[in-house]
Amino acid sequence: MKDLIIVGAGGHGREVLEWVKDINAEKPTWNVLGFIDDNLSKLADKKCSCQIIGKIVDWKVEENQCFALGIASPPVKEKVTKLLMGRGAEFVSVIHPSARIAESAGYGLGLVAYPNAGIGPDAYVGDFVTLLSSKIGHDAWVGDYTTISSHCGVNGEVKLGKRVFLGSHVAIVPNKRIGDDVYVGLGSVVINDVENNSKVFGNPARRAR
């Protein structure tokens, strides 16, 4: 059994810990050592069964260690994973037992899939995607480092670029293209393609000025 370290001790990291506990309850998979976070006081006022055992910035990867990503910010995910993988870190996927992934779907490294998340037939999800309790429709494509918050509808044949962030309750109609580094505000309804480096909000979603 490998030792598991959760990268990031914020709210998302603590949620990842809960999903790891659910996985271990069904089948013992990892020995959780704790969190690494550059803010060593992040858990000071929290009730948590694990502690921060060191900083990300100076963590030395040891044998038998693997890592789970507990960070939601797309650009921070990219920075941190590249840093640790450059030191030899192995990232695992944390897929809650209640998540449903179609047999024909594919996904990359470090997927975090929350309870009741879903990935439909022939969809593809890239590296270090965070999928809260939302569904990815058939034939959709999700780029690396993207975060999809809870209760989103990413419908059939939608394509999301890299480092996209969808707030909760976002709906995207089929066949739309969302560029790289796009932020979609909570509750937005996307009916048109969205250009790279955009922030959009509303129903229908419009670019913020």
From TrEMBL:
UniProt-recorded Gene Ontology molecular function terms: acyltransferase activity
Site description Increases basicity of active site His, residues in chain: D139
Residues passing through the membrane, by range: none
Keywords (A to Z) from UniProt: Acyltransferase, Transferase
Active site: H138 (proton acceptor)
Residue ranges annotated for the PglD N-terminal domain, each copy included: 3-82
Pfam families named among the record's database cross-references: PglD_N
Positions in coiled-coil regions: none
Listed InterPro entries: AcTrfase_PglD-like, PglD_N, Trans_hexapeptide_repeat, Trimer_LpxA-like_sf
Superkingdom as given in the UniProt entry: Bacteria
Cross-referenced NCBIfam families: NeuD_NnaD
Record PANTHER family: ACETYLTRANSFERASE, UDP-N-ACETYLBACILLOSAMINE N-ACETYLTRANSFERASE
Record-given protein name: Sugar O-acyltransferase, sialic acid O-acetyltransferase NeuD family
Organism, scientific name: Desulfosporosinus orientis (strain ATCC 19365 / DSM 765 / NCIMB 8382 / VKM B-1628 / Singapore I)
